[in-house]
Structure formats: structure tokens, C-alpha cells
Specification:
Rossmann fold; 12 strands; about 300 residues; four-stranded parallel β-sheet; 15 helices
Length: about 300
């Protein structure tokens, strides 16, 4: 296994040799974000995956994101450095249970957060990301009944903001659930006037203290536009890397968990990807995302609706 600058040079060589594009989510380790061709939120990464003319997509994120890339670009080889990079929201929504839930509510459509399995996407009508959910919801007729899953906090936030009464699936993100309201209030007292930007996967008792609620790309834009020089960030702390790169004069503080530290909010799934595993994935074109065609086509219908309604 090459190390240090040799490892970076080998990844570079393989990227060219394979005609590969490296896509990374904002929650990836800084060294992965720094060598990616594109770093973005779930919606932007889906769009990039749909548009790319590369032969190989090396997806540095979690499995549902790499699966989305494969659904939208089936002719490409899509590799994920660590196939165990799952998501607690996906785990909270087993397809058989979701299918039963849908069958119990035949007059509802299923508006589903992209953080779910391909089988749940195939059972859904429209997919949303945190950056597109509000816009998509506003295009659904007022009298249409809606099931929203799997994130009850994002669903609850949307329901409060838009006044839409939706049936919520009871899933949560273990990372955003770990923020402590008491510790956030202590941090706010230590930094009077510093705004709080939070991801809508946070529970309502955290969102209640936020000056801005939005997706990872939305939080980055807020950090860029804000007046002050200090921001408290209530989402996975690796996003702070992009903020510090783009805004070196501002201070970004991760919102803490119950232990007073923001490291407990590192996504354990995202953290499975490493430069070494990325190198192996580009070298061996494994682990590779493979999906069954019938399920892919059904999932693509709900994703295509998202892409059309979000644009
Ligand atoms: P974004 O779409 O805001 O990047 O969110 C993805 C995610 O998994 C947040 O936990
Ligand atoms: Fe899933 Fe939460 Fe990790 Fe996002 S941060 S990938 S929602 S476990």
C-alpha cells in the first residue's frame, strides 16, 4: 500500500487511467474532500452523477448516495470505498415495513427523503433532499395526503414550516440526534450574538435555537453571507473544513453532544471511507454498486421527479 505523497500520486494516476470522477460529500474527511473533483450536498452530488461523462464514479459518501449515482448513471462503474458505509435513516426504514405502511394508507403519496434504500425509493412517489424538500412540497396540491419518511425530524420541520400535516415515519439520524440542547445553550452564552446554523435532521429542540435551518450547501451559503465572524454549526463537523477553507477569517464552532465535544457528532458511516480504501477502489474497481434493473427503473422514476421538481 503506497503512503503519503505516493498514495496521492497513485490515486491521481488511477483517476486519469480509469477516466474516473471522484465525488465527495461535505461530511467526508478533509483529505478526501481536498482531492475530490466535486464536493457537494446530496442533491448536487445526484446531479453531478447524472451529468458526468466519466467512465467510473468513485463515490466518497454513504451507500444510498452511491446507489443514487448508479440509478441515474447505470452504464457507469460506481465504486464506494467502503460498502459498510450505510446510514441510520436507511436502517430505520426496512422496505417490507415501508410497503406495509404504504398499503395501510392507499390515499397517501409517499414523499421520501433520499436517505433510504433503493427498495424504499422504488416504493416511493417522489424523492426529496434537504435542499429540495420545501420546493417540491410546495408543488404538491394542498389536498393531497402525504406520507413522509424516513426522517421524522426533517418531516416535522417541514410540517411546522409549511403547515402541511404529513404522516411521519419514525426514523432518525443518530448523528444529528446526538446534539445536546444544554451544551448548545452553554455555547451560545459563551459566544453572545453568534448565530446557529442547523441541519433539519436535528430534533426540534435544537432547531428552535437556530437562526438558519438548511441542507449542508445551504449552511455553507449562510456562513458565507452572514454578517458576524463566528458561527455555531449544528451538523456533522467535517463540513467545517469547507468553511475554514472558503472563509479563513471567520470562526466556526461545532455544536456539542452531551459530553461537551463535537466529535461525537462525526458520522460513523461517512468516516469509514479513507484515502487507502479509495485507492483500492480505483485500482480494483471494487467494491462496486450493482443493482437489479427492475428496482432501478422504479427508483429512477421517483428520483427523476425530484430532479424535475427541484430545478
Ligand atoms: P445534505 O443533502 O444536506 O448534504 O444531507 C445529507 C445527509 O446525509 C445529512 O446527514
Ligand atoms: Fe445518515 Fe446521519 Fe450519516 Fe447523514 S449524518 S449519512 S443521515 S447517519
Amino acid at each position: 500500500m503506497p503512503t503519503g505523497t505516493d498514495l496521492l500520486a497513485e490515486i491521481e494516476r488511477l483517476r486519469k487511467e480509469r477516466n474516473a470522477v471522484i465525488l465527495a460529500h461535505y461530511y467526508q474527511k478533509p483529505e478526501i474532500q481536498d482531492l475530490a473533483d466535486f464536493v457537494g450536498d446530496s442533491l448536487d452530488l445526484s446531479k453531478k452523477a447524472a451529468e458526468t461523462d466519466a467512465d467510473v464514479i468513485a463515490f466518497c459518501g454513504v451507500r444510498f448516495m452511491a446507489e443514487t449515482a448508479k440509478i441515474l448513471s447505470p452504464e457507469k462503474v460506481v465504486v464506494l470505498p467502503d460498502m459498510d458505509a450505510g446510514c441510520s435513516l436507511e436502517d430505520s426504514c426496512p422496505p417490507e415495513q415501508f410497503a406495509r405502511f404504504r398499503a395501510e394508507h392507499p390515499d397517501h403519496i409517499a414523499l421520501t427523503y433520499i436517505n433510504c434504500s433503493i427498495q424504499v425509493k422504488a416504493l416511493s412517489d417522489i424523492i426529496v433532499t434537504s435542499s429540495s424538500a420545501e420546493k417540491i412540497l410546495s408543488q404538491i396540491p394542498e389536498d393531497q395526503k402525504i406520507i413522509f419518511g424516513p426522517d421524522k425530524h426533517l418531516g416535522g420541520y417541514l410540517a411546522r414550516k409549511t403547515g402541511r400535516d404529513m404522516l411521519l415515519w419514525p426514523g432518525v439520524c443518530i448523528v444529528h440526534e446526538a446534539f445536546s440542547e444544554t451544551e448548545l445553550l452553554k455555547l451560545k452564552a459563551e459566544h453572545p450574538g453568534a448565530p446557529v446554523a442547523a441541519h433539519p435532521e436535528c430534533p426540534a429542540y435544537i432547531l428552535d435555537h437556530a437562526d438558519y435551518v438548511g441542507s449542508t450547501s445551504g449552511i455553507l451559503a449562510y456562513a458565507n453571507d452572514m454578517q458576524g465572524d463566528t458561527l455555531i454549526v449544528a451538523t456533522e463537523p467535517h463540513i467545517i473544513h469547507q468553511m475554514e477553507k472558503a472563509m479563513p477569517d471567520k470562526t466556526f464552532i461545532g455544536s456539542p453532544g452531551a459530553d461537551g465535544n463535537c466529535n461525537c457528532n462525526i458520522c460513523p458511516y461517512m468516516a469509514l471511507n479513507t484515502l487507502e480504501k479509495l485507492y483500492v477502489a480505483l485500482r480494483d474497481l471494487e467494491p462496486r454498486i450493482e443493482i437489479e434493473e427492475d428496482t432501478r427503473l422504479k427508483a429512477k422514476t421517483s428520483l427523476d421527479r425530484m430532479l424535475a421538481m427541484a430545478s
